[in-house]
Specification:
Length: 192
């Protein structure tokens, strides 16, 4: 399974809106990264990885829903769900073919034509699923998704009161100091 990327700077004391912004940005980037080669029927793990990424993105959009404008959130969720459905239409035959291939390898040669005939039907389903997925990718191309996510990110960030915004460190950027330690130092100068 595709491992989820960590969310940079996410801590227990991160304001909810900022956590929402960074989390959906990372999960959307994961989804876009999985799109490369997803229509190649010889690389079925790309479909699986992208499908997992859509689930993760949908989950964080729902968790952080109070941070986003309802209409924009609804549209984005609808589009991500449509993409997930299209990925499922392609993934199901991929899994069936993989299992049938393994099963066929265990059969005597004389029994394989029946399985191969059924596999040709499933390959047709795979091609139909691929066409459905290609159409879904055209509707929600990576740039459109990034634009939608950035709209949500800005709304979440803008909702955080200035007093809850992270303070800039020595280099002027919010986040960990140059030594990478995000924890404040105690009186002895050690990270708390």
């Amino acid at each position: 399974m595709v491992k989820a990327l960590p969310i940079p700077g996410l801590r227990a004391d991160t304001p909810y809106g900022l956590a929402a912004a960074e989390t959906i940005r990372v999960r959307a980037d994961e989804l876009v990264a999985q799109a490369t080669g997803v229509l190649d029927t010889d690389r079925i793990e790309r479909v699986h990885g992208m499908r997992v990424a859509t689930r993760r993105l949908r989950a964080v959009l729902e968790i952080y829903a109070p941070c986003f404008p309802p209409a924009e959130l609804k549209r984005t969720l609808r589009e991500v769900k449509a993409l997930a459905d299209a990925l499922g239409a392609r993934r199901d035959p991929d899994v069936q073919l993989e299992g049938l291939d393994r099963f066929a390898a265990t059969l005597p040669e004389a029994d394989r034509p029946g399985i191969h005939g059924f596999m040709s039907v499933v390959r047709a389903d795979q091609e139909a699923g691929n066409a459905t997925l290609a159409a879904a990718l055209e509707r929600l191309d990576p740039q459109t998704l990034r634009d939608r996510i950035e709209t949500l990110v800005r709304a979440a960030e803008d909702a955080v009161p200035p007093e809850l915004q992270p303070a800039a460190d020595d280099d002027g950027d919010p986040g960990p100091d140059d030594d990478g330690d995000a924890r404040p130092a105690d009186d002895a100068g050690e990270a708390a």
